[in-house]
Design goal:
Elements lengths: L2 H9 L11 E5 L2 E4 L4 E4 L2 H4 L8 H11 L12 H13 L6 E5 L2 H16 L3 E5 L8 H6 L3 H4 L9 E4 L4 H7 L4 E6 L2 E2 L5 E2 L2 H14 L2 E5 L23 E4 L10 E5 L1 H5 L14 H16 L2 H19 L4 E7 L2 E6 L4 H9 L2 E2 L1 E2 L4 E4 L7 H16 L2 H4 L1
Parallel strand pairs: 3-15, 5-6, 5-7, 7-10, 10-11
Antiparallel strand pairs: 1-2, 2-3, 4-12, 8-9, 11-12, 13-14, 14-17, 16-17
Helix pairs in contact: 3-11, 4-11, 12-14
Bound molecules: pyridoxal-5'-phosphate.
Pyridoxal-5'-phosphate (PLP) binds next to helix 5.
Length: about 400
C-alpha cells in the first residue's frame, strides 16, 4: 500500500470499496498512477471523461473563468450561465427548452422528482428494478437495488418499482396519481442493459394515456455516449424531462434537468434551488465540453467505435462470455463468472475497466479514444477473458 492509500484508508468515511490503484494524472484516454505507470482508460470516471481527461479546451475555459468569477448565485444573472443555457438547449431535443442547473446526477433526479410532483399535483412515482438514479433520499427511493436502499429505510412514500422491459407490470402500476415514470434507456449500473424500442415507446404511450410525465435519466447515457446526443433518440421517444450530469462538465461537476415549457410554467420562484447550481466555473467547463462534442462529432465516433467492440466480442465467441450487450461506447459483457478478478488482471496489463454488478464487465472509454488504443484495449480484454482466472483460483 502506498502512503496515499494509507492516508485515505485512515481518514475516509468507509462508504467506498476501493481498487488497489492511486491515479494521479490523466491526458486524453490515458491515466497514470503514482508510480508513473500508464493505463488505457476504459472507465472515464464512470462516463465522466467522455471528451478525455484534461481536454485543453476545458482546461483553458476553467482557467480563464477562475481568473474572472468563480461563484455567482442564481439570484443574479450571469454571462457564462446564459451562454450555457443557450448552448445546451441548442443540442437538446427541440421540445426541451427549459433547464435547471445543479451539481450532480442525484441532484438532477431529486429536482426532477420535485418538478414532476409540483407540475402534476400528483405524488406517485414509478421506476424500474435494477435501475440506478442516485443516492440522496429521493433519488435513492427510485433506485431499484435493494442493497442500496435497505440501510436507509423508510424512503419516499408512493414509489413503486416494476420490472424493466415489462409493459404489463407498468400498466398495472400506473393510476390517476402517477406523477412520473423514471427510466434509463440503457441500465448502466444495473448491468449495461439496453431497453427495446417497443418498450420505451410503450412506456411513453402509457405515460401519455395516464397524464404522467416520462422522465428519462440520461446521466450515464447522455451527450454522445450511446452514439447519439441522447440515448432516447434511438427510440424516437420524447421525454417530458431528461436528467444529465457526469460528462456534461468534461470532468467538472455539473448536473442539469431539461424539461418542457409546460412543466416550467408550473414552477415558481423559491420552489427549488442550489447554492452552487449554475456557477460560472461549471458553466464555462460545460460550454467547452459541448463545443468539443459538437466539433469533434463525438456521438458519431461513439457509434463507430462501439460497433468495433460489438463485432470483436461477438466474433470471438469466448466460452466465458454469456452475452454481449450495449449501445455505442457503453459496452457490457455478461460473464459466466465473477468479474472482479478480471478487472484486477486488466489493471495489471494496463487497462482500467469497470464492473456493472457482480458478473458484468463494463467498458466506458472516453469517446475521443484513438482507434488504435481502443483496438489494443479490446485485444487485452479478449486475452484476459480467455485466461479463465476463476477456474485457476
Ligand atoms: C443513470 C444514473 N443516474 C444517476 C446517477 C447518480 O449520479 P451522481 O453519482 O452524480 O449523483 C448515476 C451514477 O452512476 C447514474 O448512472
Amino acid at each position: 500500500m502506498t502512503t496515499f492509500q494509507e492516508l485515505e484508508t485512515q481518514f475516509t468515511s468507509g462508504v467506498y470499496g476501493k481498487r488497489n490503484l492511486t491515479l494521479v494524472r490523466g491526458q486524453g484516454s490515458r491515466l497514470w498512477d503514482d508510480q508513473n505507470r500508464e493505463y488505457i482508460d476504459c472507465a472515464s470516471g464512470i462516463s465522466v471523461a467522455n471528451i478525455g481527461h484534461c481536454h485543453p479546451a476545458v482546461v483553458q475555459a476553467i482557467t480563464a473563468q477562475a481568473q474572472t468569477l468563480l461563484t455567482c448565485s442564481e439570484a443574479f444573472y450571469n454571462d457564462r450561465r446564459a451562454q450555457l443555457l443557450q448552448k445546451l438547449t441548442r443540442v437538446a431535443p427541440r421540445h426541451l427548452q427549459r433547464v435547471f442547473l445543479c451539481n450532480s446526477g442525484t441532484e438532477a433526479n431529486e429536482a426532477a422528482i420535485k418538478f414532476a410532483r409540483a407540475s402534476t399535483g400528483r405524488t406517485g412515482l414509478i421506476s424500474t428494478k435494477r435501475s440506478f438514479h442516485g443516492r440522496s433520499m429521493g433519488a435513492l427511493s427510485l433506485t431499484g437495488t435493494p442493497k442500496y436502499q435497505e440501510p436507509f429505510l423508510p424512503l419516499l412514500p408512493d414509489v413503486t418499482q416494476v420490472a424493466y422491459e415489462k409493459l404489463d407490470e407498468l400498466a398495472e402500476a400506473m393510476n390517476e396519481n402517477t406523477a412520473a415514470v423514471f427510466v434509463e434507456v440503457v441500465q448502466g449500473e444495473g448491468g449495461v442493459r439496453p431497453a427495446s424500442q417497443e418498450y420505451l415507446q410503450g412506456v411513453q404511450a402509457l405515460c401519455r394515456q395516464h397524464g404522467a410525465l416520462l422522465v428519462v435519466d440520461e446521466i450515464q447515457t447522455g451527450l454522445g455516449r450511446t452514439g447519439k446526443w441522447f440515448a432516447s433518440e434511438h427510440s424516437q421517444i420524447q421525454p417530458d424531462i431528461i436528467t444529465l450530469a457526469k460528462s456534461l462538465g468534461g470532468g467538472f461537476p455539473i448536473g442539469a434537468v431539461l424539461m418542457t415549457q409546460a412543466i416550467a410554467d408550473k414552477l415558481e420562484p423559491g420552489m427549488h434551488g442550489s447554492t452552487f447550481g449554475g456557477n460560472p466555473l461549471a458553466c464555462a467547463a460545460a460550454i467547452a465540453t459541448l463545443e468539443v462534442l459538437e466539433e469533434e462529432n463525438l456521438p458519431q465516433r461513439a457509434a463507430i467505435l462501439g460497433q468495433i467492440a460489438f463485432e470483436t466480442f461477438t466474433q470471438a465467441k469466448l466460452p466465458i462470455v454469456r452475452e454481449v450487450r450495449g449501445l455505442g461506447l457503453m459496452v457490457g459483457l455478461e460473464l459466466k463468472q465473477k468479474v472482479a478478478p478480471y478487472l484486477d488482471a486488466l489493471q495489471e496489463k494496463g487497462v482500467i475497466a469497470l464492473n456493472a454488478g457482480p458478473t458484468t464487465l463494463r467498458l466506458l472509454p472516453p469517446l475521443i479514444i484513438s482507434e488504435e488504443d481502443w483496438r489494443a484495449a479490446l485485444a487485452i480484454v479478449l486475452e484476459t477473458l480467455a485466461s479463465n482466472l476463476n477456474a485457476k483460483s
